[in-house]
């Protein structure tokens, strides 16, 4: 019994070290870049968005807003108060929808994490998240021309924590907050991937998420709802699943529904949408993730 336990521990530790060595550099780089963007570029990104509101860009503003949402380092709870201030300054709801949607799905830190998945998966993630924001903005532009979609009453711009006069200390404090917020999720994701690698046969993953592509995409979109907790924590799982035969379309669906339905994000979105529009949001996310997964599988093998 003791010998069996020791052998299993050795196997698990070997897989853990392997996964940690593979992912850790991207996690560190993501932490550093995310904090750098938050400390040194956040105000410039948001200032650029406010400046766009003064220009008559029409539908092109939706594309610009979605790109700025991807570049924004804030989480959803940080994005919504900022979006409230944007709304007060006259930014249109369709532009806000594009900015908020892409900001939910992606940020510079998560882009760095996703580099560990390979060039194809990284490209799919960036493009799908950008297009999701664009489509959200276009739908609001079409169906909510004459009425407000968001209700930001009661929201105020959050207090800026990056105020230390020493730039280096300001950066290091932000980096430490970043590490505390994501570190445990990162380690938990590696532990989960180790368990999958050791005890879940590769053919199971291939059968569920690869061979039956339509069902695989739907399943990946569905499990993204309860399983997703932190972007960094899901990267080790995706690496393992992709190596075991998960289709790229299933991975794309998971990468969309995961952050879009993360429980803290849902709570924030529900506040500004109300029940009926919140259900529209959920339906939009699930439909977009499923269709995106099917399209990706048509072009990526």
Which helices and strands, and how do they pair?
Elements: H1 2-52, H2 60-71, H3 76-88, H4 93-105, H5 108-114, H6 119-143, H7 167-199, H8 202-211, H9 213-227, H10 231-243, H11 248-260, H12 263-299
Terminus-to-terminus distance: 44 Å
What is the SS-derived class?
mainly alpha
Count of all domains = 1
Strand content: under 5%
Largest sheet entry: none
**Uncertain runs with pLDDT below 50, 5 residues or more?**
none
Note the overall shape: globular
Secondary-structure element series:
HHHHHHHHHHHH
How many helical stretches? 12
**Strand segment count:** 0
User: What value does the Rg take, in angstroms?
Assistant: 20 Å
Arithmetic mean pLDDT? 82
Work out the helicity level: over 70%
What does this structure look like?
- The protein has helices spanning 2-52, 60-71, 76-88, 93-105, 108-114, 119-143, 167-199, 202-211, 213-227, 231-243, 248-260, 263-299.
- The model has no long low-confidence stretch (mean pLDDT 82).
- The chain is mostly helical.
- The radius of gyration is 20 Å and the shape is globular.
- It has one domain.
- α3 runs antiparallel to α4.
- 80% of the residues lie in helices and 0% in strands.
């Amino acid at each position: 019994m003791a010998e069996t336990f020791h052998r299993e521990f050795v196997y698990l530790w070997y897989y853990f070290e392997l996964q940690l060595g593979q992912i850790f550099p991207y996690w560190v780089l993501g932490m550093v870049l995310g904090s750098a963007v938050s400390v040194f570029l956040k105000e410039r990104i948001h200032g650029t968005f406010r400046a766009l509101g003064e220009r008559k860009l029409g539908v092109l503003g939706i594309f610009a807003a979605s790109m700025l949402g991807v570049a924004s380092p804030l989480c959803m709870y940080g994005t919504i108060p900022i979006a409230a201030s944007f709304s007060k300054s006259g930014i249109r709801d369709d532009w806000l929808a594009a900015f908020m949607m892409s900001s939910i799905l992606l940020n510079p830190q998560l882009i760095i994490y996703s580099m560990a998945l390979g060039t194809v998966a990284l490209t799919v993630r960036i493009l799908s998240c950008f297009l999701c924001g664009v489509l959200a903005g276009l739908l609001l532009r079409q169906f909510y021309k004459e009425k407000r979609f968001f209700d930001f009453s009661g929201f105020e711009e959050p207090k800026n924590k990056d105020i230390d006069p020493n730039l280096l200390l300001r950066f290091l404090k932000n980096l430490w907050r970043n590490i505390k917020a994501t570190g445990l999720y990162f380690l938990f994701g590696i532990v989960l991937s180790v368990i999958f690698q050791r005890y879940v046969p590769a053919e199971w993953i291939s059968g569920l998420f690869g061979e039956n592509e339509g069902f695989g995409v739907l399943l990946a979109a569905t499990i993204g709802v309860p399983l997703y907790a932190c972007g960094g924590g899901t990267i080790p799982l995706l690496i393992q699943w992709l190596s075991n035969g998960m289709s790229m379309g299933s991975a794309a669906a998971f990468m969309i529904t995961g952050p879009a339905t993360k429980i803290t994000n849902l709570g924030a979105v529900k506040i500004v949408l109300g029940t009926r529009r919140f259900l529209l949001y959920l339906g939009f996310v699930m439909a977009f993730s499923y269709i995106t997964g099917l399209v990706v599988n048509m072009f990526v093998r």
